[in-house]
Amino acid sequence: MSTLKQLRRRIRSIKNTQQITKAMEMVAAAKLRRAQNRALASRPYSEKTTEMLQSLAAAASSLTHPLFEQRDVENRSLGIIASDKGLCGSFNMNVFRHVERSFPASERSDISLYPIGRRANMYFGKRDWTIGGGVELLGDQIQFQLAKEMASEFTRAFTAGETDKVQLVYTKFRTVASREVVIEDLLPIVPREDAEGAGGDYIFEPSPEKIFDTLLPRYVMNRVLQAMAESIASEHAARMLAMGAATKNAKEVLDNLTLTANRLRQAAITKEILDIVGGAEALK
Fold first, then answer.
1. What is residue 185's DSSP assignment?
2. Could you tell me if 243 and 22 are in contact, meaning their C-beta atoms sit under 8 angstroms apart?
3. pLDDT at residue 195 above 60?
4. CA distances from 258 to 1, 99, 253 (A)
């Protein structure tokens, strides 16, 4: 059994840990509010851009653009978005396990990974995967330049024929307590005949080629940026909940240790009283 001194030392240590987890919970909550607002505010723009592009692409069906080219998938690229830091529960492992389950070992020979975030680089760098590129640090806020660089890399690999399909794997933000790991197709861009306005009588000025040469790179960058925004919001939500649970667990452990320490202290006091009484009785 632990001594009273050891219990007091453990209580002090857990109190210090509780203060840290509580502070991290509050910081994550503050960051979550900003990240959540950004992700939700940019979502309608991303959805409307996708809808508009699919509609224009369907209307300009005679146009041949490299990003519309659909090929037999012999090589695939996966952009995997995770976090830089830990202490966010199962947030990162949910992404990694989803990738492992979706692409068994027998199907990985033609897959190139582009990990985004330190944890993704650490995890897949130690396993039997082909790393085609990626980003070491994602950060905890949206970075336009980072999204632009990754979009350019994906576009270059696809147009150069190095990959036949590009997909993004990230955690989509639903609510603070609900998140979902998704795999979304990024390239090639597939026109939807059922998109709103598809087949409409559009007049392209100056020309469909110039319009798509300007619009498509921005579309790809916006999709990558939105995925990063969703992942960052999900990360902060997961960390806030994980630190809240850690703080609650620390309180339960403190209560149990304090109760045990009080019992030991009372037992020690009782023993001393009995010793005193016994000594007094012996002197009579």
1. E
2. yes
3. no
4. 15, 44, 8
- Please report the pLDDT score of residue 267 as a whole number: 78
pTM attached to this predicted model: 0.85
DSSP class of residue 154 equals: H
Locus of tokens 């002197």: 283
How many C-beta atoms lie closer than 10 Å to residue 201's C-beta?
5
Average pLDDT, the chain: 86
Rounded to a whole number of angstroms, the CA Rg of the chain reads: 28
The answer to whether the CB of 79 falls within 8 A of the CB of 153 is no
CA atoms within 13 A on the CB side of 264: 14
Q: Structural domains in the chain?
A: 4-20+243-278 (1.10.287.80), 22-238 (3.40.1380.10)
Q: What is the pLDDT of residues 66-90, one digit of tens each?
A: 888 888 888 999 999 999 998 999 9
Active site residues: 88
**Residue 115: which region, alpha, beta or left (left: phi > 0; alpha: psi -120 to 50)?**
beta
β-pair type (111-116, 130-131): parallel
Strands 178-187 and 130-131: unpaired
DSSP state, 61?
T
* Residue 165 to residue 157: CA distance in whole angstroms: 10
CB 208 within 8 A of CB 63: yes
Q: Across residues 90-102, what is the average pLDDT?
A: 94
- Complete edge-to-edge strand list for the sheet that includes strand 111-116: 130-131, 111-116, 76-81, 165-175, 178-187
Render pLDDT for 3-20 as a digit per residue (tens, 0 to 9). Answer: 888 888 888 999 999 999
Q: Of all helices (H) and strands (E), which one includes residue 167?
A: strand 165-175
